[in-house]
Specification:
The N and C termini lie far apart (41 Å). It is built from 4 helices and 5 strands. It has 144 residues and is of the alpha/beta class. The chain is globular and about 40 Å long.
């Protein structure tokens, strides 16, 4: 099932890392679905809303959103807007206090926070297909 409820079920079972496969959607709204599978497309903003409402009901420990991003810069900007406006103070934007080169923050320090993990497209690559192709070319060059 690819409805926000599937993410809610995972969170209510104590899951602390959720993968979101983000793709270009119509009407400038990114969608989430697992590419090349039989899952239905759901709006990114609907999933973020569900995550906001259920992220810390079962556990107060940090939640990691692992973004598999296939969107161009415009829809990435939309995603960033939804994350900031919907998650508000839950979203970890600024580093926590301390010297991160010596020690990362503990899960205890990050309670109630949502962390985003993902790769960002470079400024000159607005088409995700160009990014994916050039990324593959780089990997092939590294293997040589």
């Amino acid at each position: 099932a690819s409805r926000p409820e599937a993410y809610v079920r995972a969170l209510m079972k104590g899951c602390r890392c959720v993968e979101l496969d983000c793709w270009e959607g119509s009407n400038r709204e990114p969608v989430i679905y697992h590419g090349h599978t039989l899952t239905s497309k759901i709006l990114f903003r609907d999933v973020i809303e569900s995550i906001r409402d259920h992220a810390f009901k079962h556990s107060s420990y940090p939640l990691i959103l692992s973004l598999e991003n296939h969107c161009g810069l415009e829809q990435q900007s939309t995603m960033a807007h939804h994350l900031k406006t919907m998650l508000g103070d839950m979203l970890l934007i600024q580093p926590v206090e301390g010297d991160l080169s010596k020690q990362l923050p503990s899960p205890e320090q990050l309670k109630g926070k949502i962390l985003v993990k993902g790769k960002k497209l470079s400024e000159n690559k607005t088409d995700p297909r160009v990014y994916l192709i050039s990324n593959r070319e780089e990997e092939m060059q590294e293997e040589e």
